[in-house]
Amino acid sequence: MGKKSTMPPEQRAQLVLRLLSKEEPAAQIARRAGISEQTLYRWRDEFIGGGTQALKGHGGLAEQAKERERLAARIAEGDQVIGELTIANRVLKKLSGASS
To answer: Domain limits of the chain?
Structure first.
């Protein structure tokens, strides 16, 4: 696996847009940016894939909202258990201190 790019996403997006607009050949864009053509094409594919996800509409947002609600409920359950265990721990500490 190659090294991870340190190029900001905005700059990568601009390179991809230049590629998609066919302002200049991919080889020239890649060379000027100091990346391989393969990297440029991978970014293009990721860029287009992200756009496809965004175009799925509010269905994706609804799914995200459901997932957030589910996770919030799990966190609340965890907080409840922590509270109960804290109380039990305090009671046990008091009982063990009283019998010493």
So the answer is: 1-55, 58-100
* List of residues 6+ apart from 40 with CB closer than 8 A: 15, 16, 19, 26, 29, 30, 33
**Domain 1-55 in CATH 2.60.40:** no
Model-level pTM greater than 0.70?
no
DSSP 7: S
Contact indicator for 26, 37 with CB cutoff of 8 Å: yes
**What DSSP assignment string belongs to 15-60?**
HHHHHHHTSS-HHHHHHHHTS-HHHHHHHHHHHHHHHHHHTTTHHH
Cβ atoms of 7 and 33 closer than 8 Å: yes
> pLDDT tens per residue, the chain (100 residues)?
556 668 898 999 999 999 999 989 999 999 999 999 999 999 999 998 887 666 666 556 777 888 899 999 999 999 999 999 999 999 999 999 865 5
